[in-house]
From TrEMBL:
EC number, UniProt record: 3.1.3.16
InterPro entries: Rtr1/RPAP2, Rtr1/RPAP2_dom, Rtr1/RPAP2_sf
Entry protein name: RNA polymerase II subunit B1 CTD phosphatase RPAP2 homolog
Main location: nucleus
Residue ranges of the region described as Disordered: 183-206
One GO CC annotation: nucleus
Species, as recorded: Ditylenchus dipsaci
């Protein structure tokens, strides 16, 4: 029950309800436009189609595009149609060219080449940080597709330093195998010794 001295402004209430409905409608519309753009870019597209879809994308949705293409075993750059070799049963990949070991789902493993990776990074750097459905209408941008991907790969070596090199990983795996064999051998020796002692107690006079 409302207090008797409280009056409801029906006109103001209806206005606020209408505004809320419109806000929800626009948010759903913007979410759908982002979803449609992501779906469009999951397949290889022309530069014109890419540019058109960039208008509604943000950094996170670009990552979704790359991830979906990765799951489909195709290069993460939407304008590239090259396939990528991915073995999802393995957790790590040994890159002999870079002499690195990284996770199967690493960014380095989602592109057919460093050039495509650099171009993708260059495009993503131009996108908005916040999604369209959260910001609403925003000032249009002039997007460009980088021609020099090298400038967006300058941090590759820095990131590579956080990974262990292939020889280091192989050595560690070999060490673990050796340790496992030693422990297994030790366990067997203990078991054999216990069996011998039981046999002695059973057959020798006390």
């Amino acid at each position: 029950m409302l207090p008797k001295n409280v009056k409801i402004n029906e006109e103001g209430l209806q206005k606020r309800l209408a505004q809320e409905r419109e806000r929800i409608r626009l948010e759903e519309q913007r979410r759908r436009s982002i979803y449609t753009a992501i779906c469009d870019l999951c397949d290889p597209v022309t530069e014109e189609v890419l540019m058109e879809n960039l208008k509604v994308l943000d950094v996170a949705s670009w990552n979704e595009v790359v991830e979906e293409r990765f799951l489909g075993r195709i290069c993460g750059l939407p304008t590239c149609s090259n396939s990528i070799a991915v073995d999802f049963s393995k957790k790590f990949v040994i890159d002999k060219k870079r002499k690195m070991v990284f996770g199967t789902d690493s960014e380095l493993n989602k592109y057919c080449s460093d050039n495509c990776l650099g171009i993708s990074r260059g495009i993503q750097s131009q996108l908005w940080l916040e999604p369209l459905w959260a910001t609403g209408e925003r000032e249009p941008k002039q997007f460009t597709i980088p021609t020099n991907s090298a400038e967006f790969l300058s941090d590759m070596k820095a990131k590579a330093s956080s990974f262990q090199s292939a020889p280091q990983i192989v050595k560690r795996l070999n060490d673990l195998r050796i340790l496992d064999r030693v422990e297994s051998s030790s366990d067997s020796e203990v078991e054999n010794k216990e069996e011998d002692e039981r046999d002695e107690r059973e057959f020798l006079p006390g």
